[in-house]
Write a structure and sequence with these properties.
The complex is a heterodimer of chains A (543) and B (223). Chain A is of the alpha/beta class. In chain A, the strands form two sheets. Chain A has a five-stranded mixed sheet with strand order 4-3-5-7-6, sandwiched between helices. A two-stranded antiparallel sheet of chain A has the order 1-2. Chain A has 25 helices and seven strands. Chain A folds into two domains: 350 residues, no CATH class; 110 residues. With 223 residues, chain B is mainly beta. Chain B contains one helix and twelve strands; from the N terminus they run αββββββββββββ. The radius of gyration of chain B is 20 Å and the shape is globular. The chains are: A alpha/beta (543), B mainly beta (223). At the A-B interface, α24, β6 and α25 of A face loops of B.
Chain lengths: 543, 223
């Protein structure tokens, strides 16, 4: 691939990646996890305080990285925040992942990197979760950054590179507890790949055990100190909550129990494979099989005799993380990102292997490390006997795969953004909630108290979210899990209730209220009770 | 006493005989071919004053005049969104009412309508609609209208309207919302005459899209 062609494809990939990650960011209703994170960020924004919660919420990088965006946009309170401000943070890291790929161009080859960037730009999974205000997009980006930093250190061990790897590991740890999986996988992948490609004549295992190949102690100590310092700063809320770092270690027992115990989130081992390979529901079909197939080719190429250090490190990292995340019984679809980012990079290597393979005369083991130029090819001894897939055919297949991925991504962020048939929309808030919020807003507009209109939400925690986000601009909203604790209801213009509380509320309210039902999530409903006089005024205003 | 009783009976029959004859043609039960339920048990815990009571039981027999037949089968269907992402408009009158994939049409979000052209004006005795019955959900602002005008500009009669806040701008409806189930929702046109049947909806409680598995219109052709 020429430099000009590479530059063009990189430009196209970046434009597509930015466009798909940023357009209409605030259109999809807030998922309850997003809303929960956004409200937690709002507390940090308003008070400057953060306290790590070892039972939930993961690490604090998400919140601290959102601060500069809010400041730039002039938003200083939870009420002034909007969805765009919080969602742009994972979107930027989604684009950052492509820039990390780009920095590997000299090591993997232009075809591999351009292909991987295009696939990453258009992958529905990567696009969808880059628009989601949770840790996953940041975490995937940091996981790949950690792998790359370790790889660069292995190429040329310097103190600066050891420190960089430590910082990346520390940031990953401060983002999500499962960093122990991805950082460990990256260390093993780089160590094995480095020695695999070492001097011949020794077995891999003996090379692994040779202390002469180990990093110097001072480098290890510097990397560990950097990781600890970075993680410590975040978990202690920049030294204002000293217990935070220790809590992050205590959290492992919580997450270990959650990861291995039976729960509503338990899924079979092949959950991620099926999710990415083929998902069909309600007439909508989704597949990223093209990426998986190319990743398999890339895996074969990387682990073959001519694989090289970087392809092998990426392949081993991807294999380890995919196996471990699949083995953990607790599964949510966004947890696939850390290994799928590696798989997409591997798919780029696979695309390059197909483009460069001299079909018909050679075996896979003879794949050149980099795509051969026409001139180099012509100089090979048996050039006249060989034939290769025409570049236009390889390009056309890749374009078709990218077009299909792009079309799916568009569906995933547009029409099916919150639809249960979208495999990435997991227990998602129904768009019907936006009607509920609009109703409450409209009622507040005609109520004498306006934004101080009293609203009582009577629902368990699972059915309260994402209302605290959507009702954040209303000053008097209270939340109770049970109707018995929420009264008296006299003088409450609007009451929102989960279905288990509706009977008790109907008995308490009599005919003084009218009620409406709204979908919160698929087959989960909320009932809104509106004081009859207020409703009559509302109808009169909308006649 | 016995004679008096007999006389009273005869008088009563004589008084009401003309009235009974004036009630119209003889009635018979409407026989429907219903699809298999897609979810086990209707969620009977759902409650709202604006929601039809969920009993979890069949709606029971519905009586129509003898000679009533299915008029909508294979009839032309028009919609406010003629380019559905999933399915084809013909599926709405193809007689297939199953709840699974491949049986429904998905049209654009927001307020949308579909319209069945019966080919000729008829006396309508039952209209049934299945939006999507593989999941417990409520379709918003369901409005069913009948007219002889294909553009629904004149002679429009609304036979069902549960748009209780006039979101659709077609007037405030007094009917209640309902949960989609396999037996569909039956609307009673009470013998109303018309050639076109138009059904509105405005998204649902699961997503903001509109769906139709089937619309069936039963009636008797005008002589």
């Amino acid at each position: 691939m020429t430099k000009g062609g590479f530059a063009t494809l990189v430009g196209v990939a970046l434009v597509l990646a930015i466009g798909l990650r940023v357009i209409d960011l605030d259109r999809r209703p807030m998922h309850h996890d997003e809303a929960n994170q956004a409200v937690k960020f709002g507390v940090l924004l308003e008070t400057g305080r953060y306290q790590y919660d070892r039972t939930d919420h993961h690490g604090p990088t998400l919140y601290y990285l959102t601060l500069p965006v809010a400041w730039i946009r002039g938003q200083t309170t939870l009420a002034s925040l909007d969805a765009w401000t919080v969602r742009i943070v994972p979107a930027l890291f989604g684009v950052g992942l492509l820039l990390l790929f780009l920095s590997l161009a000299s090591r993997l080859g232009r075809t591999a990197v351009a292909s991987a960037m295009l696939l990453a730009a258009l992958s529905p999974a990567l696009v969808y979760y880059s628009r989601f205000y949770i840790q996953e997009s940041i975490f995937a980006c940091l996981a790949i950054a950690c792998l790359m930093a370790l790889g660069r250190y292995a190429e040329r061990p310097t103190l600066a590179r050891a420190l960089t790897a430590g910082v990346c590991a520390g940031l990953a740890y401060a983002t999500k507890e499962t960093s122990v999986i991805v950082v460990s996988a990256a260390v093993v992948a780089v160590a094995v790949a480095r020695r695999w490609s070492g001097p011949t004549g020794h077995r891999l295992a003996s090379r692994m055990m040779d202390p002469r190949t180990w990093p110097p102690i001072r480098h290890l100590a510097a990397a560990a100190a950097a990781a600890l310092a970075v993680a410590g700063l975040f978990f202690t809320a920049f030294l204002s909550y000293p217990d935070g770092l220790l809590d992050s270690i205590r959290a492992f027992s919580v997450f270990f129990d959650r990861g291995t115990g039976a729960s509503a989130y338990s899924q079979p081992w092949d959950y991620y494979l099926r999710l990415l390979g083929w998902s069909s529901s309600g007439g909508a079909v989704w597949t990223e099989a093209a990426v998986l197939a190319l990743a398999l080719v890339g895996m074969g190429s990387a682990l073959g005799p001519a694989g090289g250090f970087w392809p092998r490190a990426i392949a081993i990292y991807t294999a380890i993380t995919a196996i471990v995340f699949s083995a953990v019984s607790y599964k949510t679809p966004w947890n696939l990102l850390p290994f799928y980012a590696g798989a997409v990079l591997l798919a780029g290597i696979g695309a390059q292997a197909i483009a460069a393979h001299p079909w018909g005369q050679t075996r896979w083991g003879q794949i050149p490390r980099r795509p051969m130029t026409q001139k180099a090819w012509a100089l090979t001894p048996s050039a006249g006997k060989r034939w290769a897939l025409p570049p236009w055919l390889v390009g056309a297949v890749l374009v078709a795969a990218c077009a299909h991925l792009g079309w799916q991504s568009w569906r995933a962020i547009d029409r099916y953004a919150a639809d249960p048939r979208n495999p990435y929309a997991y227990a998602h808030t129904s768009p019907d909630v936006l009607r509920l919020v609009q109703r409450v807003t409209d009622l507040a507009a005609i109520d004498a108290d306006h934004d101080r209109m009293l609203v009582r939400v009577v629902a368990g925690p699972y059915e309260q979210w994402p209302l605290p986000w959507y009702l954040r601009r209303m000053e008097r909203v209270g939340y109770w899990p049970r109707a018995a604790d929420a009264g008296p209801f006299e003088g409450t213009p609007v009451i929102v209730a989960s279905q288990e509380n509706v009977g008790a509320l109907e008995a308490a309210l009599g005919d003084k209220y009218i009620s409406e039902m709204y979908g919160l999530r698929p087959e989960v409903f909320l009932t809104v009770f509106i004081e009859r006089g207020l409703w009559e005024r509302f109808l009169a205003a909308h006649r | 006493m016995k004679i008096q009783h007999m006389l009273a009976t005869v008088l009563t029959v004589a008084m009401f005989a003309p009235l009974q004859a004036g009630q119209g043609p003889e009635k018979t039960e409407l026989k429907l071919k219903l699809p298999k339920p897609m979810f086990i048990g209707t969620p009977t815990n759902l409650k709202s004053a604006n929601l039809e009571v969920v009993t979890g039981k069949s709606r029971g027999p519905f009586m129509v005049p003898v000679g009533t037949k299915l008029l909508s089968e294979k009839k032309a269907v028009k919609s406010s969104d003629m380019q559905p992402v999933i399915g084809e408009m013909e599926m709405i009158t193809d007689g297939e009412k199953e709840g699974g994939d491949g049986y429904f049409v998905e049209i654009a979000p927001g307020k949308q309508w579909v319209q069945v052209d019966l080919g000729a004006s008829a006396s309508l005795h039952a209209i049934l609609a299945w939006h999507y019955h593989s999941q417990a959900r409520v379709y918003r602002d369901v409005i069913v209208q009948v007219s002889d005008d294909k553009d629904f500009l004149k002679g429009v009669t609304t036979i069902f309207n549960n748009d209780h806040d006039n979101t659709s701008g077609l007037g405030i409806g007094k009917d209640k919302e309902y949960i989609e189930v396999a037996e569909g929702r039956l609307f009673d046109p009470k013998g109303l005459k018309g050639r076109y049947v138009r059904c509105y909806s405005n998204g649902n409680t699961s997503n903001d899209l509109n769906h139709y598995v089937e619309i069936e219109v039963y009636g008797t052709p005008l002589k």
